Amino acid sequence: MERVRASFLENSAAGVGREVAQLKRFTGALCCGLAVSLFLTLGAGLAAAATSLSDEQFEQGKFIYFDRCSGCHGALRKGATGPKITADRMLKQSLAELEETIFDGTDAGMPGWGRTGELTKAETALMAKYMQLPAPIPPEMGLKDMKKTHKVHVLVSDRPKKPEHGRNIDNFFGTILRDAGQGAIIDGDTKELVGVVDTGHAVHIFRASATGRYFYTIGRDGKVSLIDLYAKKPQVVAESRVCLDARSVDVSKYKGPKGDFVDKLAVVGCYWPPQMVVLDGQTLEPLKVISTRSSTYDTNEYHPEPRVATIVASHHDSEWVVAIKETGMVWIVDYSDLDNLTMTQIATERFLHDGGFDATKRYLLIAANMRDQMVVVDTKDKKFVAKFETGVKPHPGRGANWVDPKYGPVSATTHLGEALISVYGSDPDGHPQHAWKIVREAETGGPGLFLKTHPNSNHIWVDSTLSKEEGANQQVCVFRKDQFEEGKKCWQATKRGKIVHFEYNKAGDEVWTAVWDKKGEIIVYDDKTLKEKTRIKGDWLVTPTGKWNVHNTVYDVY
Ligand code: DHE
Q1: Is 353 known to be catalytic?
Q2: Rounded to the nearest whole angstrom, what is the distance from the C-alpha of residue 367 to the centroid of ligand 1?
Q3: Ligand 1 centroid vs 363 CA: distance in angstroms?
Q4: Does the beta carbon of 501 lie inside 6 Å of ligand 1?
Q5: Ligand 1 neighbour 398 (Cβ under 6 A)
Q6: How much distance in Å is there from the Cα of 309 to the middle of ligand 1?
Q7: Whether 490 is catalytic
Q8: pTM to 2 decimal places
Q9: Ligand 1 center–CA 153 separation, angstroms
Q10: Per-residue pLDDT tens for 300-310?
Q11: What are the residues whose beta carbons fall under 8 Å from the beta carbon of 301, sequence distance 6 or more?
Q12: What confidence tens digit (pLDDT) does each residue in 399-444 have?
């Protein structure tokens, strides 16, 4: 092992020459469309020195790590949503112990990759060994490299001035087809497939432009795609790759004294390199890179990999609110003058992950899930408001806002680590005694990922995707706003795959959820009766996960 460590240091110190060579290989791979291969080409020197893994096995380990592990543990394995798993720590455990964790997962929310069928026994054994080797350091990515990946497939001047079809774009749903690296656009009125488009590797989320004309998607490989919904068949009209690993994208929504930014800019939050990138909203030309490398909010220690977690676009100012995971800072970035950029950096809590607005769209509520807390930031006065404990690893997605008959306006989260929905007051003006305090708690069907509601609905829908109990991750649970605990109903919605994520239609009288499976389905429920209305099926529905209604995404309705 000493030999391995020594050669790793040489590898890191090899300097600019090697990095440039790696970057060339990386950009070459991009041109060929081999998106994720950059992680496969890194650290070859290290692998050669390792006695326990061949070059080929090491490359396989890197790919699996990027695909399944780095999102929670970080490219440098310093930990965030998942704990720190650097090689020195992993060497304190036996290979058998590591294999067990990787195969079966943990009670703290780590999926059992073997149990769920994602990794074979042989792959699990390989990953146990891989984890005892030092993490290879991925290359940087600057504007010049991004620009090489930038493509405009349809010039702005050649795009239709009005929709080329008679469908109701406002009620379109963008759906992730995760393992296909594709996105499906479904007509929410007719439930017909409007089109499938190629996006990035293991594409993660959709966001709608401020007018709702475009959908933006971000792939885990950092590829951002712009989908024009005016076209007869939705098509990718522009794309760029601005990171090597990413999870978030949003748009500019502001129009006012500082200018008209409606559909003008987009922003991508990268995991690696740790940075955010501003792009032209119509062409996806990368315009500006803002590094997030900085110090932690509490100990003021430099962190080499502060990743961008959730981003929301302000509705009342020319600002993006950006959560910086590892430092626990929330940045409010004013995009109205990119050459003289201003931002407010707000100290909150580590490690920030996902979140959304309260019903007034003034407060941003974000999970600091490794500290079991929710954090509240005032986006109007630009300051920290509160943080409070909920349960084990809160995970709200965008969250859910409604008016509780006893406590007034409230918001809520589910949890990765336990079967719990926590409800907290979110109206500091009208109900200050309940604001940012837990007012209700109830058991869900199991540890889960998402919940959702709509102002026109009496229900809150909750998944239990991470449950390990037989059939529990195939359940849907629904709570009532008027009779919270007493009105709870849970049922098994599928006999295969997992149930994940909910989205309402524009009217708020239908709920869509995904059966996350190789041969997936979308189940559509009548929100009033909770009866199944239909199942959307098709060969194209490969591993559906998140889904977003255009109207609800534009206006942050949840
Ligand atoms: Fe997500 C949102 C990160 C795994 C489905 N996910 C987010 C956001 C972040 C994030 C930072 C907030 C984006 C924003 O608001 O701008 N997700 C991560 C990870 O790091 C993690 C834990 C591990 C990984 O390797 O990626 C991860 N996420 C998943 C999944 O496995 C999910 C369930 C399925 C999938 O398709 O990958 C998944 N994440 C989602 C969804 C949202 C999301 C559906 C948006 C929720 C919404 O309602 O808008």
Answers
A1: yes
A2: 13
A3: 21
A4: yes
A5: yes
A6: 9
A7: no
A8: 0.89
A9: 28
A10: 999 999 999 99
A11: 295
A12: 999 999 999 999 999 999 999 999 999 999 999 999 999 999 999 9
Q: Which of 201, 204, 303, 395 is catalytic?
A: 395
Tokens describing residue 54: 């061949």
Side chain identity, residue 382: K
201 CB within 6 A, ligand 1: no
Closest ligand 1 atom to 207 CA:
49
* Residue 51 pLDDT level (bands cut at 50, 70, 90): low
pLDDT tens, residue by residue, 472-523: 999 999 999 999 989 999 999 999 999 999 999 999 999 999 999 999 999 9
Can you tell me the distance from the alpha carbon of 298 to that of 326, in angstroms, rounded to the nearest whole number?
A: 11
Q: Where are the domains of the chain?
A: 3-137
Cβ-count burial 61-83 (b if 16+ within 10 Å, e if not): bbebbbbbbbbbbbbbbbbbbbe
Q: Other C-beta atoms within 10 Å of 345: how many?
A: 15
Q: Would you say domain 3-137 falls under CATH 1.10.760.10?
A: yes
Ligand 1: does its nearest atom lie under 6 Å from the Cβ of 325? no
Q: What is the DSSP string of 446-497?
A: SS-S-EE--TT-SEEEEE-TT--STTGGGEEEEEESSSTTTT-EEEE--SSS
Is 11's pLDDT higher than 90? no
501 is catalytic: no
For residue 190, give the 3-state DSSP assignment.
coil
CA atoms in the 13 A half-sphere facing the CB of 488: 16
How far is it, in rounded angstroms, from Cα 127 to Cα 150? 34
The CA-atom distances, in angstroms, between 402 and each of 311, 377, 420, 451, 454 are: 22, 19, 18, 12, 8
150 is catalytic: no
Report whether pLDDT(25) > 70. no
Distance 247 CA to ligand 1 centre (A): 7
pLDDT tens per residue across span 352-406: 999 999 999 999 999 999 899 999 999 999 999 999 999 999 999 999 999 999 9
Q: Is 530 left (phi over 0), alpha (psi -120 to 50) or beta?
A: left
